[in-house]
Amino acid sequence: MSIVTDRLLLRPFGPEDEPRIKSIVQSGATFLPPGTPAKTSGVARWLEAGVHELRRSGQGVHLAMTDATPGGDGRIVGAISLFKTSWTAGTTEVGYGVHPLYRGRGFATEAVRALAAWVFRTTELRRIDLTANLDNLASLHVARKAGFTWEGVLRSAVLEPDGPHDLVVFGLLREDDGEPSRVLPREELRTPRLLLRAYAERDVPDLVAMAADPLIQANTGVPRDYTEEHAHAFFGRSERMRMRGHGIAWAVEELASGRLAADVGVRDLDWNHGTAEVGYMAAPWARGNGYTAEAVAAVARWLFEQHGLRRLQLRAAVTNHASQRVAEKAGFVREGVARSSLVGEDMALYSLVPSDLA
Q1: Backbone phi, then psi, for 94, in 5-degree steps?
Q2: What is the pLDDT of residues 3-55, one digit of tens each?
Q3: CATH 3.40.630.30 intervals, the chain
Q4: Boundaries of each N-acetyltransferase domain copy (predicted)?
Q5: By Cβ atoms counted within 10 A, which residue in 101, 237, 251, 325 is the most buried?
Q6: pTM (2 decimals)?
Q7: What are the tens digits of pLDDT across the range 127-171?
Q8: Where does the chain have alpha helices with state H?
């Protein structure tokens, strides 16, 4: 079998691949199928028999992912496999790997989409599984962009040299349209004084310092004794939330200093109804400048004008007058008080609709 895409040819491994596979084995790159020999002396035998055992058993197939672009010379840039195929249940699982030098080009997504289409076109299988470690953001991106649905997390499901890892389970059904779920793109937003961007490693010290602020401790649910580990976990959770289509988080940078000034996040995103909730934290060293309201207003305009949302909600503790001022400066309208709304505390409820910004 062979599958042609815009840039790739997916084909069985063969004896002609021996020089390339030996080179990959010598380099220590780990993306080839399970069972690939650790020493070059075993490559010829593996290409002759071992790599084809899965196909002969009827449980799947290992395919080379080769560069079919002009100048690509058919070079092996990755591998993709079907395995754990149950013809009775009508299910199979897909796995993939890309050579480190060829990552970030979308090859894995292109290959997964093509192989999934081939499965549903040429077989009677009804479901394709895909699993990825919860902390492997690149692989989670591939699954989403290939049209798979995030179905759940198996806690501590795999044991690797650095310890247990949670495993995300994705699924693609024959009747799915194969299109990625709707997510907010990772775009930078600019205002006259601010840059809203993804969090980066350089933000960790400032985020830890923000979380230790007494006002933030009193009015948010950030952990006490916030550490760098908490910050890194927050980065991962935020990106996974975005990939699931549930929201997004921005680091708000002061352009003049390049320092973290605030955090603005969108959560509980409901694409069907066009609604979401906005939350924020202001760094103590940046308060009093109107930065948070400026950032929230920029996010609101982006959500309304670029992504068609119809209503944003914002909640602030009735005792947190500074947060309420931010909401009002950003254009939000107070609607009332939600009693015992958050950990038993009354919350002032605000909303913003597109006509409020006209």
Answers
A1: -115, 140
A2: 999 999 999 999 999 999 999 999 999 999 999 999 999 999 999 999 999 99
A3: 3-173, 189-357
A4: 8-175, 194-356
A5: 251
A6: 0.80
A7: 999 999 999 999 999 999 999 999 999 999 999 899 999 999 999
A8: 18-27, 43-48, 53-56, 107-122, 137-145, 204-211, 214-219, 228-243, 291-307, 321-329
